[in-house]
Specification:
Layout lengths: L8 H12 L6 H8 L3 H8 L3 H26 L1
Helix pairs in contact: 1-3
């Protein structure tokens, strides 16, 4: 499995610039026009991979708690 490292500040700045100012006709521009909030991607890129996993894990746990509460309410 490939090991991913945090992007360098320069690469992060370039990625952020592309997301904030997509090239005309690019897929990023199409996503933006479709209504995708690209600032959320920028926010996630600023996190370390470990922090992204932690947040995903927290969200999955919260979803499971809601699912469990819904099951209890049905019975």
């Amino acid at each position: 499995m490939k090991t991913r490292h945090n992007p360098t500040p320069d690469r992060l700045a370039r990625a952020e610039d592309l997301l904030r100012n997509p090239r005309p006709g690019s897929r990023i521009e199409a996503a933006q026009k479709f209504g995708i909030d690209l600032t959320l991607l920028i926010e996630k890129l600023r996190l370390s991979p470990a922090e992204r996993v932690r947040r995903m894990h927290d969200a999955a746990n919260a979803a499971e708690q809601v699912r469990g509460a819904a099951r209890r309410d049905r019975t």
